[in-house]
Amino acid sequence: MTTVQEPSQVKLTEFEDNDQKPVGFGRMLRKEDARLLRGRGRFVDDVQLPGMLHLAILRSPFAHANIVSIDTSAAEASPGVKAVVTGETLKGLGLAWMPTLSNDVQAVLATDKVRFQGQEVAFVVAEDRYQARDALELIDVEYDVLDPVIDVRRALEPDAPIIRTDLEGKNDNHVFDWETGDEEETNRVFAEADVIVKEDIVYPRVHPAPMETCGSVADFDPVEGKLRLWSTTQAPHAHRTLYAIVAGIPEHKIQVIAPDIGGGFGNKVPIYPGYVHSIVGSIVTGKPVKWMEDRSENLISTGFARDYIMRAEIAATREGKILAIRTNVLADHGAFNGTAAPVKYPAGFFGVFTGSYDLQAAHCKMTAVYTNKAPGGVAYACSFRITEAVYLVERIVDVLAYELQMDPAELRLKNFIQKDQFPYTTKTGWVYDSGDYEPTMRLAMEMAGYDELRKEQAEKRARGELMGIGISFFTEAVGAGPRKDMDILGLGMADGCELRVHPTGKAVVRLSVKTQGQGHETTFAQIIAEELGIPPADIDVVHGDTDNTPFGLGTYGSRSTPVSGAAAALVARKVRDKAKLIASAMLEVSVADIDWVKGSFSVKGDPGKSVTIQDIAMRAHGAGDLPDGMEGGLEAQICYNPSNLTYPHGAYICVVDVDPGTAEVKVRRFIAVDDCGTRINPMIIEGQVHGGLTDGVGMALMEMISFDEDGNCLGASLMDYLIPTALEVPDWETGYTVTPSPHHPIGAKGVGESATVGSPPAIVNAVVDALKPYGIRHADMPLTPSRVWDAMRGQATPPI
Amino acid sequence: MQVPAPFEYERATSVDQAIGLLERLGSSARLVAGGHSLLPMMKLRLANFEYLIDINDLHGELGYIRLGADEVRIGAMTRHRELLESDALAQVFPVFRDAEKVIADPIVRNRGTLGGSLCQADPSEDLSAVCTTLDASCVIRGANGERVVSMEEFHVGPYETAVADNEILTEIRIPVKSGKSGSAYAKVERRAGDWAVVSAGAAIWLDDKGHIHDARVGLAAVGPNTTGIPEISAALRGHEPDESLFELAGAIAARSCDPSTDTRGSAEYKRHLADELTRRTLRKAVERARS
Ligand SMILES: Cc1cc2nc3c(=O)[nH]c(=O)nc-3n(C[C@H](O)[C@H](O)[C@H](O)COP(=O)(O)OP(=O)(O)OC[C@H]3O[C@@H](n4cnc5c(N)ncnc54)[C@H](O)[C@@H]3O)c2cc1C
């Protein structure tokens, strides 16, 4: 039952005050909000070009069926229709299939058969959206329905229908096996351990569901031979290269423009067939073509997330020293392996399942399979599968606490990697750059009033009330990544940055990453401001347009600040180095004799004698002499290749109340202490954390893309696929500690996904803790009232 | 963008004119009130009609809450928001405000109507359960005049009502009985603004001695039709309200309903909620009647 909470008083003065700060890091309102909040943003669907046509896609109603025939004649004769394209048409052009981000292939339009409900079968281009949509009804497709593979656990059974008959010689639904850690050593540690606890843990399939659905406007100019594509993409440069490879258009003749993007969460990393359709549509008709999917299309056909069936085992001493963790994972990849992950990491960064603990051994074995469900895989603010990894370890540690009858906070404190162990190499080979876990944990406990909460819980339990306290402590691995290890389809995961200071001291910085709401236009201006002393308001941040920005792999996996943010800081330092030479000439002293105080250089020992960065910019562009051999102008560019990932961490504590009669869960409090290293704009960080925590409430309590036995998607609208509202979330209580990254130029670690990664286990742990009087130690998400009620009666079932 | 199939659109200027249009256009036409049930179905192309007759201009004629000595009359075009905000209605039948607080969200409540809710006849519709709880009757008007039917007669089946293609629901009438009375509504939902997993309304009328003169319970989302449960009324009448009586009523509710398993919950859980919420709302209704 819904209750409305009084909003806490927002202290506006806090923002005002900080906006008056001169330059650099600190709280300030977001530069992009002036436009976004006034409705002056420009999203893909706002793009209107002269003569533009509209595209609608016919999708399969079945999860698995052969296509017997397609009759498009009635649709072609329908008013306003300019083209109807089927898989056969594309086959003729060699475009029926395209590569996925994981070196698999995916149908652009189905030719032989459909492999998931919602798969693209044909498209119509017409003068307006209504005509395009109406014409879809007139396409007559005859299907021969096949048995689908829906239950992932049965995908590898010998009699399971084969989904990928398109792959030569494929006679099962196996995608890949993957392994990490030392099996033998892990088994040895397990064999000698006092206590072993095992639990089956499912992370159900969920969907990123960004506010803006996916879409594109393609404009192919047959004279210039140039393709302009406005599209909802988190990675414009990577997309451009892939289009060049797929469509055979030379790369310099493709301009990908990601305008304002209404949320991505990983959903806008892959290339979807619809984007390619709009390109084909524009080439075929000679007109600009817009495709904008509707909400149901987004939910049923675009990149999902998670879908990991995990068996977790943990070994410990009786005193609560954790020794080893091993896990077996069955991963549902849908009909095509469309996972977005670095090539050498088919399971993303799941290898960090050892968490924040100092273990003796660890091992993971994973099998990925095809099913008749939408493709995708790594998406939804998951830092390349770290969401699953953190959920696994934080859940199994709680199960261990239950079995040992230990307080879960105490158990964690006892096993943390210690400050002096960093850089710490985990048993699965990850090198954690820096961390100081205990103070973060202690701060969260203090903010929560942990001991008081446990007392309150004991009193409530005595009265038959159900209150739960859940903890999660996570270590993230973000900022992919070092090019020696990490590439996507052969493209190294480095990022470029260009900075140009204009004569009057204003500047433009060009990024290879692309904001989808994270506030890059502010954060990156602040990074430059901090390094150069030019106020953020004077710095234009350009991004999203491949013709106007340097190459780089885009924004996902919390990588913008760790990778591109480092590039921005370093490019600013390059400019500053040049400015210093000019300053020394202007001040007529040697370089060794000048000091940098944010925004100006002054003569050592004579601070009154100084030149500002603005003075220097004018000199760099103006008349008069520059130091010997120096070119005019004040600009620089860089391509930054990170030497390691960065490893943010955090301690989250959640308090829930469960109604014993109805099994409804109410999240009463949530304390989030994040350590993302150096904090650039605390307001933006808090915004990212608030969003991620809300996501976490959604996943823990209500979100799931489920299917019936025929493969019909049961989450095809926002009436069915629930995302949380302000009424389901408490007033977030956030705190922070700062452990800078040693290898990042400003020590920043990235925070975009921390809260999404860290919050689901805290909430589930809280609910399970509330249900302790029923003798329960595990229940799977989503913890809807009905599922909680099942758990209370010892009848919890996995959400498969 | 989800777009409906092509249709013609007409704005009705009076109830009689709307009936005239329905007479002429037959089953190819549909009335649109708040549009919050009809338009989503049309956008998803689950429903296609050739004509829409917009009756929003009839809000002046059909949007009202009139409290009489022995009857409350509410016009079919009365919006959720008006039902929520009416203090006078909350005074007599607090069940309305209880329910309206948990129906949809402010945007839907600004447009959605009482008439549309009942005519949609979705088994999860909250106002149908409220009207059942209060033993309301429905006034249906056609070319040949008016007829009045009970809620039981009104609901023919899921998404099916006694209103014919050429008729319009104009008013709901709720009897006001003498003596002390109380009513309440409770709903379990997965998230604010979601349709009910299960909801229940209860109304109680006490006699001078504080015994139950009459009691009614209406449930939503536990079967094809939101019907009253006469057995509960029979079991409660004449008794002094107490916890064991509520338990009995809850048990009857649980066994009288016919829920099915879906993404909102298992049939078993819904049956449990029918019991739990029946007890809770009866308890609250009695509390209100006594105060
Ligand atoms: C997001 C969302 C959440 C919702 N949540 C809930 C909820 O929690 N609980 C709940 O009960 N409801 C909920 N609803 C439904 C909401 O209450 C609708 O407004 C209501 O069901 C229909 O009212 P309407 O006026 O919008 O009807 P319309 O959509 O305009 O019409 C519905 C049907 O009734 C017919 N009709 C309308 N008026 C008359 C009349 N006077 N005579 C004859 N036929 C008529 C129409 O022809 C149509 O067939 C929700 C709706 C939405 C969009």
TrEMBL record, chain A:
Its cofactor is Mo-molybdopterin cytosine dinucleotide. One of its GO terms (molecular function) is copper ion binding. Keywords: Molybdenum, Oxidoreductase. InterPro entries: Ald_Oxase/Xan_DH_a/b, Ald_Oxase/Xan_DH_a/b_sf, Ald_Oxase/xanthine_DH-like, AldOxase/xan_DH_MoCoBD1, AldOxase/xan_DH_MoCoBD2, AldOxase/xan_DH_Mopterin-bd_sf, CO_Mo_DH_lsu. Residues 38-147 form the Aldehyde oxidase/xanthine dehydrogenase a/b hammerhead domain. PANTHER family: ALDEHYDE OXIDASE 1-RELATED, XANTHINE DEHYDROGENASE. This is Carbon monoxide dehydrogenase large subunit apoprotein.
TrEMBL record, chain B:
Pfam families: CO_deh_flav_C, FAD_binding_5. InterPro entries: CO_DH_flav_C, CO_DH_flav_C_dom_sf, Diverse_Substr_Oxidored, FAD-bd_PCMH, FAD-bd_PCMH-like_sf, FAD-bd_PCMH_sub1, FAD-bd_PCMH_sub2, Mopterin_DH_FAD-bd. One of its GO terms (molecular function) is FAD binding. Residues 2-179 form the FAD-binding PCMH-type domain. The keyword Ribosomal protein does not apply. SMART domains: CO_deh_flav_C (SM01092). The keyword Kinase does not apply. Keywords: FAD, Flavoprotein, Oxidoreductase. It comes from the Bacteria. PANTHER family: XANTHINE DEHYDROGENASE SUBUNIT C-RELATED. This is Carbon monoxide dehydrogenase medium subunit.
